[in-house]
Amino acid sequence: MALGYRQGHQVRIRTDEAARLLESLDSLRTAITIYESDGRLAHANAHLNFLFPFFPPAETLLGKPYEELIRMELAGGAIAPAMLAGGEQAFIARRLAQLRDDSTPRDLILADHRVLEIKSRRAANGQCVLLWTDVTAARAQHARLEEAIALTGDAFAFYDADDRFIMGNALYAQLAGVTLESIQGESYADVVRRVVNSGQILVDEPPEDWIARRLRGHQSPATALTIRTAGGHAYLVRDRATSDGGRALVFTDITDKDRAEKALAEQVQALARTRSALDASRARAEQQTSYLADLTRRLDQASAKANSAKTTLLRTMSHELKTPLNAILGFSDLMASLAGKLTPDQIREYSGLIHQGGNNLLRMINQIMDLTKISAGRYELHRTTADAGNLLWQARESFLARAESKAITIDTDACPAGHGIDADEAVFTGMLHNLLDNAVTYTPHGGLIRLSVELLRPGRVAIRIEDNGPGVAPDDLMRIQEPFEHAGAAGEHAKGAGLGLTLVKAFAELHDGELLLASEPGQGFCATILMPAAA
Questions:
Q1: CA within 13 Å, CB half, 318
Q2: CA distance 467 to 446
Q3: pLDDT single digits (tens) 292-331
Q4: Is 242 helix (H, G, I), strand (E, B) or coil?
Q5: Residues 466-522: pLDDT tens digits?
Q6: Do 234 and 197 have their domain in common?
Q7: Are residues 90 and 180 in the same domain?
Q8: I want to staple 135 with a disulfide (CB 3.0 to 4.6 A). Which of 117, 126, 331, 344 is the partner?
Q9: Total structural domains within the chain
Q10: Where in the sequence is the domain holding 249, given as residue range(s)?
Q11: Domain of 229: which CATH number?
Q12: Among residues of the chain, what percentage have pLDDT more than 90?
């Protein structure tokens, strides 16, 4: 009798536990329905009546076939017309199939625009559990994201935490030469192999080597590279990890920029080919130089009445105007004196050199105007949150052709994305271009330029551009930040108008930041911009 009592007590405990478990299911915000192997309802929690308020109480539905509940949904007008496009019988058949197949969740769109996701799970005893979850907000957010990337001018692709394709726009499919449906759920490695093997992308090495290098870059927090297609287009590809462990890829068309850089490289080559022709114009240029020297002397005499700082500025500025004016006057006189003998190619070359001299003058004047506005407190910044790492990558792309012509490597391994700065993006890009222009100009053939971004302390981001060029003496570092100052007449860093570092320093201070320089003769040159971090 004692044993029988204990056994009965255990049965009551198990029954009580089951009852408490079923009661706890009623508190869930997900509807749970359990069907026997013959398709009849064995249990439904209270949330089912929340999803379908016109249903009778859930306990009165027990024992009814799943098909009867589906027909009750239809009779109550709960189903959206779009779900019934193939007819009611086809709709019912698809719903009933979930009791036999638990592999694919299905969305059920209701007439009131709610979206329910139905997942099925089969138990070993033949029962089937259906989980009904309201995913209206998630599906709406997904639809808005799809519309946004469909409207952008860039190609977008998203991969999940398992590195499988989940979403992209039509531009990405067109670029890859595939359909979005054909690569749904496919791994990134398989997609890359498919695109490369199809010949959509031009590679300058064995395809497997290119694919392996691309997959290594895909594993880093953020990468950027330029690819060219068989159709003659060039794209900047930015590949970045997302917060949920997935990846986001953006393809930006830079075809026009790429062509402009190639045209510039061709002009540089043309200039090298015509150096011998420049000898004939030197006598004319020397006459113009003499005229400019005389003008400089007169300007010096006239400005002697002003204070010493203004005198130095005017004298130096007039000296810096000589070089572009020599080119403009010399080549224009040459074209005038030999107008009947010059070939069209020579005319194009000489006019290009005149245009280049004019651009140099315009650039110098713009720099002087910027410095004047800053000193007068009238320069207005348009500050936004900018990604320092991405801006360094973009600046590198602008100077890559020049660097490659001198076999210079521009290392960006230490330029991760994600370090936001509070800056005027256009002004900050100009600061980077000034520093990179110096680095590429003065780094010797086969040299190295390192770019890096680092969060030094809360509120400060350090952006460094470092080369292994000839360097300058430490005593000259303060002086070369002044207008029209150089590191010595014979030094490598004595080239140029001498305004670049002055502008970078002024703009850095205008951003509440600073410019730090470090160098030793023969030990390279390092420029660091400290910028305020974005809030």
A1: 19
A2: 11
A3: 677 677 666 655 544 444 445 555 555 555 566 666 777 6
A4: coil
A5: 999 999 988 888 888 887 676 644 344 344 566 788 889 998 998 899 999 999 998
A6: yes
A7: no
A8: 117
A9: 4
A10: 139-253
A11: 3.30.450.20
A12: 34
